[in-house]
Amino acid sequence: MLEADRQRKLKLVRAAHVKPLVDLIRGWERPDRTFPLIDPEDGGVGAKVLFLQHTPGPTAVRSGFISRENRDKTAPRADQYLREAGFARSDYIRWNVVPYCISTPEIDGKATSSQVREAADLYTKPFLKLLPNLKVIVFCGGKAREQIRWLAPLPRVEVIETYHCGARSPREWEVTRQDFKRAYELMAARS
């Protein structure tokens, strides 16, 4: 993410549509555990679709945001799929099942299954409570999908399981692209 983009986002984190989520995230901070913020240019508490990935990667650690403007393998592909599906930024929010930084600015860390389990109660459930308009959750990648069983039941939302946006094979890219389109269609049908 360019520094100008980061500075613009920092000015927006107190906006009404993201303030409750930002306050929640900042309340989780502690000396040994830091959390990138949600992108304030996305839907915030008004989001109808939540895209959950694994854990923040090195570019999110550096930028301080989970954003489609991060410069890594995942964010530009997610941006492309979101645009192709027809999403407006106000329609969705992107987050992680293990939302704190396991990665460093140089090393892409991976969450363990026990961290995924622990994060369901500590982080994902409180986060979901602040999304009253939520219609669809898209779990992107194997580690993200692990958390579904710890969140169940999810009676008010449709659940889609897909590949991580940083997947390596063209077949996986196409499946993910189609799943993003399906998420858009479900959102539109339930609105």
Please specify the SSE layout and strand pairing.
Blueprint: H1 3-12, H2 19-28, E1 37-38, E2 49-53, H3 58-63, E3 65-66, H4 74-85, E4 92-96, H5 113-129, E5 136-140, H6 142-146, H7 148-151, E6 158-162, H8 170-190
Parallel strand pairs: 1-3, 2-4, 2-5, 5-6
- Rg calc: 15 Å
Q: What is the CATH third-level topology name?
A: Uracil-DNA Glycosylase, subunit E
Give the count of helical stretches.
8
Report the order of strands and helices: HHEEHEHEHEHHEH
Major beta-sheet overview:
4 strands, parallel
Describe this structure in words.
The chain has one domain: 3-Layer(aba) Sandwich (Uracil-DNA Glycosylase, subunit E). It is built from 8 helices and 6 strands, in the order H-H-E-E-H-E-H-E-H-E-H-H-E-H. It has helices at residues 3-12, 19-28, 58-63, 74-85, 113-129, 142-146, 148-151, 170-190; strands at residues 37-38, 49-53, 65-66, 92-96, 136-140, 158-162. The strands form 2 sheets. It has a 4-stranded parallel β-sheet with strand order 4-2-5-6. The protein has a two-stranded parallel sheet with strand order 1-3. Helix 4 packs across helix 8 (170-190). The longest helix has 21 residues, at 170-190. It is globular, with a radius of gyration of 15 Å. 43% of the residues are buried.
